[in-house]
Write a structure and sequence with these properties.
Blueprint (H helix, E strand, L loop, with lengths): L2 H60 L4 E6 L4 E4 L1 H7 L11 H4 L3 H13 L1 E9 L5 E11 L5 E10 L1 H36 L6 H33 L6 E5 H18 L3 E5 L5 E5 H19 L4 E8 L4 E8 L6 H4 L11 H6 L6 H11 L4 E6 L3 E9 L13 H16 L1
Parallel strand pairs: 7-9
Antiparallel strand pairs: 1-2, 1-5, 3-4, 4-5, 6-8, 9-10, 10-12, 11-12
Helix pairs in contact: 5-6, 6-11, 7-8, 8-11
Length: about 425
């Protein structure tokens, strides 16, 4: 083929080849652009799914009663649920991204993470949180892994054991105090009985004195057992209250009549400032016990020539505030917070001599709470003390018509009582 013909074919082929490659390149470029867009769309979809999954996971954790803390591999906080934020009083939204020691300065948690790195899980570890509230927490933790089995982070679940531990301590103290209180009269009865058995019964004077002491401590033991049984029934709510409209003025007069001889013996004046027509919903026998205990204590600890005054005042939300005031020596501020505890006595030696079991005010507290009220004391040393308790004029009702529980009633009314008293 002549070179001229070859050159002509080449000149024709080159443009055709150029346009063919250009079209091919454009198609390839469009394909790459479409693939890139699809990759971006897929990535955005994955991110949306991941965010939605994390949002649902966080919502699930936030609905839990237990505190939940999620950490990454570097111990940085990924999420702290609402229960944990409230429990540890963490600043909302400011924990994420910080290390656990920057967020929660509890060194035991750093030690737990160290254990997780080697063991993978920690169960039932108790830690104490420093501060005014003295929190006791149970921590259960586990190390997590990603889809490839690589370390992914840690999940910690916190249970608040503070109230449980406090109740356990209260129970131990109660058993110890009850044992001590029972041991005293039993030892006295046994000691005097053995002395009589050893020959003291031959002495008429000693016999009368010893028998009198035995009877005195037997009576004290009886009172103590009765109060313990009464307190146990109140705490367990095993006996239903017999609620009825009762005239508080008439009820107080019957209490005054029963305590008149003791008041006269102590030269204590009893004053009734209850409105004559005041009718309140109550278990008459239980509220009688409340009034009897408070007035009897006021007479006992006021001193000779003093005055005990029982008054009533209208509060908010149909509540009435009843007060029993004396003009005695008063109660020290340090004792005011503990006087409703079982077996607590301001003056232990004087209380035992007077036959006080140390359970009267605890019984008062439980009876008032069962009525949906609250009880407290205000006192100033040298000027006397005033005990307050509240009763409802009509039965508090829920929307369904069911009576509120004592705890619900107390929570609903505490603020109104305080406002009314002020």
């Amino acid at each position: 083929m002549p070179w001229q013909t070859l050159a002509t074919l080449l000149l024709v082929a080159l443009p055709v080849l150029h346009f063919w490659w250009r079209k091919k390149y454009r198609v390839l470029q469009e394909t790459n652009t479409l693939a890139e867009k699809k990759r971006e769309d897929l990535q955005n979809l994955c991110d949306d799914i991941r965010r939605e999954s994390k949002s649902q996971q966080n919502a699930l954790f936030d609905s839990m009663i237990e505190g939940v803390l999620i950490l990454d591999q570097e111990s940085r906080v990924q999420h702290a649920n609402q229960s944990l934020i409230r429990l540890l009083k963490l600043p909302p939204g400011q924990a994420e991204g910080k290390t656990i020691m920057e967020t929660i300065r509890i060194h035991e948690l750093a030690a737990i993470i160290h254990i997780l790195e080697h063991k993978g899980q920690v169960m039932g570890t108790e830690i104490s949180v420093p501060g005014k509230r003295n929190l006791i927490l149970e921590v259960n933790a586990v190390a997590t892994k990603d889809a490839q089995g690589n370390p992914g982070g840690y999940i910690m679940v916190f249970h608040d054991l503070t109230r449980i531990r406090k109740l356990e301590n209260t129970r131990r103290e109660f058993v110890a105090n009850a044992s001590h209180e029972l041991r005293t009269p039993i030892s006295m009865i046994k000691g005097y009985a053995e002395t009589l058995a050893d020959g003291a019964k031959e002495d008429p004077e000693a016999l009368d004195r010893f028998l009198g002491t035995i009877i005195k401590h037997a009576d004290r033991l009886t009172l103590l057992v009765e109060d313990l049984l009464s307190l146990s029934k109140l705490e367990s709510q095993s006996e239903a209250l017999e609620i009825s409209k009762t005239n508080l003025h008439a009820l107080l007069q019957s209490v005054f009549d029963e305590l008149a001889s003791r008041a006269e013996k102590m030269s204590v004046t009893l004053v009734d400032n209850i409105e004559p027509g005041l009718n309140l919903l109550m278990d008459e026998s239980r509220i009688r016990q409340v009034l009897f205990n408070l007035v009897e204590n006021a007479i006992k600890y006021s001193g000779e020539g003093k005055t005990v005054t029982v008054s009533s005042k209208k509060g908010l939300q149909n509540y009435w505030e009843i007060s029993v005031a004396d003009t005695g020596q008063g109660i020290p501020p340090a004792a005011l917070e503990r006087i409703f505890e079982r077996f607590y006595r301001v003056d232990k030696s004087r209380s035992r001599e007077s036959g006080d079991t140390g359970l009267g005010l605890a019984i008062v507290k439980h009876i008032v709470q069962l009525h949906g009220g609250t009880v407290w004391c205000e006192s100033e040393v040298g000027l006397g003390s005033t005990f307050f308790f509240t009763l409802h004029a009509t039965a508090p009702q829920t929307p369904s018509g069911l009576a509120l529980s004592p705890i619900q009633q107390q929570d609903a009314g505490n603020q109104e009582f305080r406002l009314a008293s002020n």
